[in-house]
Amino acid sequence: MVPTLAGRIQTRLFLLATVGAIITLLIVPVLPGSSGALGDRYVTGFLVLAAVAVLGVAWELVYHFLMQFRWEKDWPTLFGLLTLVPEGLLLYFLLRSGAVDVIDPVPSAAFWTHFTVVWVGVWLVANGPMRVPFIRWRFRGGRVL
Amino acid sequence: MAPPHVPASAGDLTPELLGTSEWSDQLVAAAGIPMYDIPFLTVGGGMGSFVTLDYLRIYGVPASQMRVVSNIDTPWQTYEFLTRCSQIPRSERIRSDSASRPDNIWGFPSYALQETWTDKTPAYLWQLLTEPLLNDYWTPRAGTVFQSLEREAKRIDYWDMLVKGQVRMVRRRAGGGYFTVVTPPEGSAPTKRIIFRSRFVHIAIGYPGLKFLPDLQEFRTKHGDYQHVVNAYEPHEQVYEFLKTRPGTVVIRGGGIVASRVLQRLFDDREKFRLQTQIVHIFRTFVTGSHGPHVWARRKGGDGWAYQGFNYPKSVWGGQLKAQMRRLEGAERAAKYKEMGGTNTPYRRRWQEQMRAGRSGGYYHPVQGTVDRVERGSDGRLVSYVRSSDGIVREPVADYIIDCTGLEADIAEHRIYDDLLRHGGAYRNPVGRLEVERHFEVKGTASGDGVLYASGSATLGGYFPGVDTFLGLQIAAQEIADDLARRGFVRRMGPFRSTSQWFKWAFNSPV
Ligand SMILES: Cc1cc2nc3c(=O)[nH]c(=O)nc-3n(C[C@H](O)[C@H](O)[C@H](O)COP(=O)(O)OP(=O)(O)OC[C@H]3O[C@@H](n4cnc5c(N)ncnc54)[C@H](O)[C@@H]3O)c2cc1C
């Protein structure tokens, strides 16, 4: 899928809310280094997911701007994977610094495991299986609506 | 199909039919041409017809409701002929990418996944992951595409829908719908013509014709020589065979992918058979580097070529450019076409290596120039008179000239389009081809509750530019299928049907 701005944002929100939520449900109980009541850990897990979504909207604006320098106005598959690094780092430091105080401190190992698995899961689905139920999605720049 | 209406007399077109733009049932009956009813008819039977039928079958239209009239036996026949001539045998890789799958409307699993599995070659996945940054675009083998098409064609009962014949014209019917006049193969029908009466007609007849560069056409006509001045889209093995027997010089014209292919063949043969072939490559537009009006619209290029993975920028098939173009009309649309148009070829590492070796080895000579004329020299060889923009005139002498420009003829050169322009209400778009709606209905041709659609090269210049590609034909097919759903011919396919149909595809079970 080659995204438009609206398509990028919609795809991100949609996939985080579906694939991201399912992965979070499955992975939170087994995240390394986390302790405390499972319920609390779920709350934290979903808040992290929400933070990826909210910050992500801003990131998508940046990506869209950068994409304008590409003649084909495309977004190679690899970019979709590697943007994990800056996004992960920014969120990690925001959480560490306490800037997002609605989210309890998350142990590094738990954060990175959760974040990476969700990211790769979303990326894999966006690069193929998403087209199975949604046949119009790839021709509309990733718009779900 | 309903039984034919009984013919009264001869069964050929009458002057009255020819002269009347809209036919009544009585008029047709009076001519004695057998008539068959079929709700949906597609004309052409190439890739465009195939993907349209594929969509509609998957949406839920029974095979008994649709027919395809064609002069070829398999949907890929014309495509395979053209690719073979232009040096892409089944074992070579085509231009379009992994997810352009004319045999699978979802494009998943992509061809790269399929070939990774069948060839047991995980390296394809690495290439897919790193394209086009660290690697060339991964593209499928022609053979993979044809085999997959054959499987899908069987699955959707393609050959039950195929009617062999040459379509002569499509005319509007008084009261709605269309008549499609077909000339069946000799001896296969009692009359010279048969007619299909349909509510919906789709036209996908590919290229209206091939055109030669004028100076080459002039030479061919003047000397009656079709052996030494050839078009890359016609069989021209004799060129390569000759070069195996003695050293020779070839002039190549054109800067697109076909020129790249032909060059590769010449370089490969040179290496494989230790030949002395000299190559003069004439570019009318010689690109020396990145080009374009501003930083947001600059394409890479060099050594004569403009580089681009596919025939249009990638976002034409679904991203930003598709969305932008969909909103443009008239002159604005034409300008956008111009901005992203121009002949181009993919940057492929193997081709770059071969050309570099050729330039430094002194056997590959790329030059800028326009050719004034071609003449036969005193030794019988071909002299091109080439004038370059800096005023230098060159006169390369060659044994063969290969026209790789791939020029297409005007749409009116094809009888069906010509008839549509004259009698059907169709008109031209800003780039001179057939004006179609966003859903590929040919503008001006509506007939009662009937609709005439077209897809493929003839519709270039419309709201969607990538028409002459597999993925573009599929985009058109989806628009058409959705439009037919709006008109109640079939149910629009939602996520559930799509998913269950995908499983049927995966298990190769009937739709
Ligand atoms: C050398 C070459 C390489 C290409 N490579 C790629 C690629 O890698 N990827 C890609 O996506 N696209 C590629 N294309 C574009 C590709 O050809 C088109 O996408 C596709 O084949 C066009 O399909 P079509 O249905 O429009 O035409 P065709 O497949 O040509 O089918 C049209 C058919 O209509 C038939 N016909 C014409 N007139 C009549 C009539 N009066 N009655 C009955 N039948 C008639 C013709 O015989 C023809 O078979 C390539 C094109 C060429 C020439």
TL;DR of this structure?
With 145 residues, chain A is mostly helical.
Fold topology:
The complex is a heterodimer of chains A (145) and B (511).
Chain A: H1 5-27, H2 38-67, H3 77-82, H4 84-96, H5 108-126
Helix pairs in contact in A: 1-2, 1-5
Chain B: H1 15-19, E1 22-23, H2 25-31, E2 35-37, E3 40-44, H3 47-59, E4 66-70, H4 77-85, H5 111-119, H6 123-130, H7 142-155, H8 158-161, E5 162-164, E6 166-173, E7 178-183, E8 194-198, E9 200-203, E10 210-211, H9 214-223, E11 229-231, H10 237-245, E12 249-253, H11 257-272, E13 278-283, E14 301-302, E15 305-306, H12 320-325, H13 330-340, H14 349-360, E16 364-368, E17 370-376, E18 382-387, E19 393-394, E20 397-398, E21 400-403, E22 407-408, H15 415-424, E23 451-454, H16 470-486, H17 495-506
Parallel strand pairs in B: 1-6, 2-8, 3-4, 3-9, 4-5, 9-23, 11-21, 12-13, 12-21, 13-16
Antiparallel strand pairs in B: 6-7, 7-8, 10-22, 14-15, 17-18, 18-19, 18-20
Protein name (chain B): FHA domain protein
Organism (chain B): Streptosporangium canum
Keywords (chain A): Membrane, Transmembrane, Transmembrane helix
